[in-house]
Automatic annotation (TrEMBL):
UniProt entry tagged with the keyword Glycoprotein: no
SUPFAM superfamilies cross-referenced by the UniProt entry: HCP-like (SSF81901)
Regions crossing the membrane: 365-383
Domain of life (superkingdom): Eukaryota
Gene3D superfamilies according to UniProt: Tetratricopeptide repeat domain
Source species: Porphyridium purpureum (Red alga)
Protein name (record): Protein sel-1-like 1
PANTHER family: ACTIVATOR OF C KINASE PROTEIN 1-RELATED, CHITIN SYNTHASE REGULATORY FACTOR 2-RELATED
Length: 390
């Protein structure tokens, strides 16, 4: 399992107040005969190799953590979990034992352990042979993230905010998610900066527009661009793409197609589907570049490989109309169906129009069906837009 990831867990945290190392502190702790903490801090020194006169030695660190844990040091128990999960200072990983140590440390009140156990419950956790060690349990994950976040663990704050935004294991609340992201943003957490920007751009923008408050819209757009820029500087590729989208549309920043294209290209083909899709849009319509339908089609294909809904629909439309590619109704139907599976109602309309519409010699009642379908679809969209938010 990856040592650091968004919600899968950050098993090796940076040195914190719970595990910071310093020669003077070690000596002070020894002077008051707090053997457990002294052993754990010595273990920290050998783990990091950052203390003067102490070279990194993971085997020695593991031994010291075991001694400290036996004397009741809860943080040492957490680090035993880290070492067993990643096979540090030992011949191989021992995932089952790692889970046991994490659970024990969480029960002892170690905030980092609560976050790590929350990550295990968030996605589930299996042994190397596929045996389930921790089942998926979003409710437990949410509670653990909240508890760890309340103690200042920034990764946990972001994780809890994400759970509230999506409604995983708790009541969905965009307002609460925004509040929590704001807290995590104080520490400039890159993913929290991105999610807060997206909430403000998509959800808060709609509320402002419905109220007719253009000043609020403009102010929100400027803040969104700032959030994306700060997240992008922290290395968040998705934030780079969303900042490029702001430059493409001139929302919160001056419109600049060349800057948008350069930003998209810097993260294109790296799993950021929105970047590939928007490059396709630029070349499809000639925004800041010459129209190039073949290049546009290729970018849409790359985005569609990530099951990006808009890219799936766009490919269906291009095959349907024969734009940049040879017209092929069967492939158009294939991509329309994939887009439909993501809930894209426009894909439904285009699919049935292509299949049963006037160009396909429909039964007499089909034309009436489409006359009724479009206003109904528009009414559904408006209802969703104006629906009260939690």
């Amino acid at each position: 399992m990856s040592v650091s990831s968004e919600l899968a867990g950050t098993a090796m945290p940076a040195d914190t107040a719970e595990g910071s190392v310093g020669t003077s502190e070690i000596q002070a702790v020894k002077s008051v005969e707090d053997n457990a903490k002294a052993l754990r801090l010595q273990g920290d020194a050998y783990r990091t190799g950052k203390t003067d006169g102490v070279a990194q030695d993971l085997s020695r660190a593991l031994s010291l953590y075991k001694e400290a844990a036996e004397l009741g040091d809860a943080v040492a128990v957490y680090f035993l979990g880290v070492f067993h999960e990643h096979g540090m200072g030992m011949e191989k990983k021992e995932l089952r034992q790692a889970v046991a140590f994490y659970m024990q440390a969480a029960d002892l009140g170690v905030s980092l352990a609560k976050y790590r156990v929350g990550c295990l419950y968030r996605r589930g956790f299996k042994d190397e042979d596929g045996t389930e060690l921790v089942p998926v349990n979003h409710e437990k994950a949410c509670k653990l993230f909240q508890a760890a976040g309340d103690k200042g663990i920034v990764d946990a704050q972001f994780a809890y905010g994400y759970m509230r935004e999506k409604g995983f294991g708790c009541r969905k609340s965009m307002k609460e998610a925004q509040r929590i992201y704001e807290i995590a943003c104080r520490a400039e957490h890159p993913d929290a900066l991105l999610r807060l920007g997206l909430i403000m751009r998509d959800w808060w923008w709609h509320r402002s527009m419905m109220q007719g408050n253009q000043m609020m819209v403009d102010k929100s757009n400027e803040r969104v661009a700032q959030l994306f820029e700060l997240s992008a500087k922290k290395g968040n590729k998705e934030a780079v793409a969303n900042l490029a989208f702001a430059y493409q549309n001139g929302t919160g920043v001056p419109q600049d197609f060349n800057k948008a294209r350069a930003m998209y290209e810097s993260v294109a083909g790296q799993g950021v589907a929105i970047a590939d899709f928007q490059l396709g849009i630029l070349y499809l319509h000639g925004y800041g570049v010459p129209i190039d339908l073949e290049k546009s089609f290729k970018y849409f294909e790359t985005a569609a490989q990530k099951q990006y809904p808009l890219a799936l629909f766009q490919l269906g439309w291009m095959y349907h109309r024969g734009t940049g590619v040879e017209q092929d109704f069967s492939k158009a139907a294939e991509y329309y169906r994939k887009a439909m599976a993501t809930g894209d109602w426009v894909a439904y309309v285009c699919y049935y129009w292509m299949t049963y519409g006037p160009l396909r010699r429909p039964a007499p009642y089909v034309g009436l069906f489409f006359i009724l379908l479009l206003p109904i679809a528009a009414a559904i969209w408006l209802a969703q837009t104006n629906a009260p938010r939690p």
